[in-house]
Write a structure and sequence with these properties.
six-stranded parallel β-sheet, alpha/beta, Arc Repressor Mutant, subunit A, 10 helices, Rossmann fold, globular
């Protein structure tokens, strides 16, 4: 992409007045381009696939598909779009779910009018933006992850594929389900599971599953 080209942004929210306000904010920034707008999750997912925006701003509580559900689809298909959650919920649990699915942004609706442009530029640049009211939770999450990596340095040795499989295991996905999602064979997934266990120095038939469950928010 040309470095001077505007950043393409998709806005998805089922409330028309609020959505229109966000679209006008995006349109008012010359460095951004409104790629499209969606009224529900189904349309948002279709437009993400068709338009391939650089950034998708997704309301979590939309009809047909939630922002989290769309995030899971983007993760599974490895689409090159930076995701931002738009929500009224300042909940650490929802923040964790969003970050685990690869969302780079988490923006509260109450501050969207003032923070949207900064947040979009942050996530478009590959940086994380979390609404300030939850910044403490983000810092604690980072500390916990650092502590886990000190305890299990093998985490940093995992390949991108192994890391994705570990996250899917944490979602209680079976090897058969993982193979279907990643378009590979059951045997390939089992081989990856063995290598992950070796790198993390885990032994026992259920040790990998327990590790994934216990550290789901920190993977």
């Amino acid at each position: 992409m040309n470095s001077t080209a505007p950043i393409s942004v998709l806005i998805a929210d089922d409330h028309p007045i609020f959505r229109r306000g966000l679209c006008e904010i995006i349109a008012g920034d010359a460095s951004l381009r409104l790629a499209g707008e969606a009224v529900d999750g189904e349309q948002a997912w279709r437009l993400i696939q068709e338009l391939r925006p650089a950034v998708a701003v997704l309301d979590n509580h939309m009809p047909k598909q939630s922002g989290l559900q769309i995030g899971r689809l983007v993760l599974q298909q490895r689409l090159p779009v930076a995701l931002m959650m738009l929500t009224m919920d300042p909940e650490e649990a929802l923040l964790d779910k969003a970050l685990n699915l690869g969302f780079l942004g988490y923006l509260l609706k109450e501050s969207a009018a003032t923070d949207l442009l900064h947040a979009v530029h942050q996530v478009a640049g590959g940086h994380c933006y979390v609404t300030p009211v939850l910044s403490g939770a983000l810092l604690q999450r980072q500390r916990t992850r650092e502590q886990l990596r000190e305890k299990k340095p093998g985490l940093d040795k995992l390949s991108p594929t192994e890391r994705q499989i570990l996250k899917l295991i944490a979602e209680d996905r079976t090897s058969k389900e993982i193979a279907h999602l990643m378009d590979c064979s059951h045997r390939t997934v089992e081989s990856h599971r063995q290598r992950i266990s070796q790198k993390l120095e885990l032994s026992g038939s259920h040790s990998l599953l327990r590790f994934a469950f216990d550290h789901k928010a920190d993977l």
